[in-house]
Design goal:
- There is one protein chain.
- The protein is 15% helix and 49% strand.
- By secondary structure, the protein is of the alpha+beta class.
- It has one domain.
- It has a 6-stranded mixed β-sheet.
């Protein structure tokens, strides 16, 4: 009697369940979920990480020198010009200016960007913004550029020196950044003088 009872339950479950049984594969058809699939960014909307390692050094040195001198000697006049007394004059002018400036910048970091367009040659245009707030100061990194699909590593990263037409901006605002700017009067005096 118990065998008939279990058989009846099994038949009822088969009938209620729709009557069809499907075999599911362990592999997804497009391979995107496979552990062996390539996880590199390739389509619009995919994300990848740009590893920024940039350094620049600029040095400028200028020197200007200018000088001139002159002298004038006049002898006493004779005849109708005897009212002219002997005198001499001399003058000189000299100018010298030296200046030098050295600017060194180093920027290391990472920013995750999104593929916003795939070009016909399979290059990808990427763009991303990262905003970090610290003690009421905002530090914002903005990156836009073009990358080759071959430059994407197996970790889905791209070095910043492999980004073509790269535009990397590092902006800041807040109380600390405001103190690092010249005041209005200083800017006015620098403009006038």
């Amino acid at each position: 009697m118990t065998k008939k009872f279990f058989a009846a339950i099994l038949i009822a479950a088969f009938v209620v369940g729709g009557g069809s049984v499907e075999a599911k594969s362990l592999w997804v058809d497009n391979g995107s979920m496979s552990m062996y699939a390539d996880k590199k960014a390739r389509n619009v909307g995919d994300i990848l990480t740009i590893v920024i390692n940039e350094s620049t050094t600029q040095t400028a040195t200028k020197a200007r020198t200018n000088s001139k001198s002159g002298s004038l000697n006049v002898n006493a006049g004779t005849g109708i010009f005897d009212f002219i007394k002997a005198f001499s004059a001399s003058g000189s002018d000299a100018f010298q200016a030296d200046g030098s400036a050295t600017d060194t910048n180093r920027f290391n970091g990472q920013i995750t960007v999104t593929v916003i367009e795939v070009l016909p040659n399979d290059n990808m245009i990427v763009e991303g913004v990262q905003s970090i707030w610290q003690n009421r100061d905002e530090h914002k990194i903005t990156l836009r550029g073009t990358i080759r699909r071959d430059d994407v590593t197996m970790y889905n990263t791209v070095p910043s020196n492999r980004v073509a037409d790269a535009s990397i901006r590092f902006d800041g605002k807040g109380p600390l950044n405001a103190k690092q700017r010249q005041g209005i009067l200083t800017q006015l005096f620098n403009f006038l003088f």
